[in-house]
Design goal:
Order of helices and strands: HHHHHEEEEEEHEEEEEE
CATH topology of the largest domain: outer membrane lipoprotein receptor (LolB), chain A
Number of domains: 2
């Protein structure tokens, strides 16, 4: 039997070692010792090779991403928000308040505005006189607190400074050009450029990244005169209903029923 066969059939080693003649001389004893020694070394070598094989299988194992893991990685990547989605956030706002500053050449106007759905209240000073304009969707009032008087107009006669919501109504997103991201009036904004198809006049707008409303608008007319409106101290949320009503004891003069002037 070969040495390889002995490794395959270790159970018969006792036959090989102790079988044969019973008279053991010194020569036979030496041969038996050599066989034992060789067989022991073979077993040790085989054990070492098996251990290394197992270690190699466990140590060099590569992790393969499953389809579920790949899906999770893809889901973690945030999709860039489109201009349409940005303005849609502003159109969903229920109410807000803000300060504004309008600059056009030598003209400067400032005030505070409150908006709740189709209602609006603006507080301004004209030649040092406080004027509160209130529009409830159908009627427009100019209220003078110092005199406790007010004038009533139809809503179509109001001439208010554009609100942030006015700029995003019916926005043609096809005419928008993205210019990047900047911090304006203390908030992170998307900067966009809008070109009016009819006049080809370009306006620049800084849009609030969270609320989707402009915080600054720069525009020019056909003659190149520049107008800038800044909206600051913006607070989004429901506004108190009493802001959009006149005090009960105010003397109101109804101007909505006056005859129209010729040519109007």
């Amino acid at each position: 039997m070969s040495l390889l066969d002995r490794c395959k059939y270790p159970g018969i080693k006792f036959k090989l070692i102790y079988g044969g003649r019973k008279n053991k001389d010194s020569r036979n004893g030496k041969e038996v010792f050599k066989i034992r020694k060789t067989f022991g070394l073979i077993l040790i070598m085989a054990f070492i090779l098996v251990c290394f094989g197992l270690a190699g299988c466990s140590g060099n194992k590569k992790e393969t991403a499953t389809p579920a893991q790949d899906t999770e990685k893809g889901a973690g990547q945030k999709k860039a928000e489109s201009s349409a989605d940005l303005f849609a956030k502003g159109q969903k706002l229920e109410g807000m308040s803000y300060d504004y500053l309008l600059t056009s050449g030598n003209l400067k106007m400032s005030g505070r505005v409150f908006i709740m759905q189709n209602k609006l209240r603006s507080e301004v000073k004209q030649n040092g006189v406080e004027v509160i304009n209130i529009m409830d969707g159908k009627t427009f009032y100019s209220y003078y607190p110092a005199q406790n008087t007010a004038m009533k107009f139809s809503s179509g006669n109001s001439e208010e400074v554009e609100t942030p919501l006015d700029y995003i109504k019916n926005m043609n997103t096809a005419s928008i050009r993205e210019l990047g991201t900047e911090v304006c009036n203390g908030v992170t904004c998307r900067v966009i450029s809008i070109t009016t198809p009819q006049t080809k006049v370009e306006s620049k707008m800084w849009v609030h990244g969270q609320y989707g409303i402009p915080v600054r608008v720069e525009s020019s007319d056909g003659s190149g005169n520049k107008t800038v409106i800044d909206y600051t101290n913006i607070k989004v949320g429901k506004q108190p209903s009493e802001l959009f009503t006149l005090p009960q004891d105010v003397k109101v003069t109804d101007m909505s029923n006056l005859p129209k002037m010729p040519g109007n």
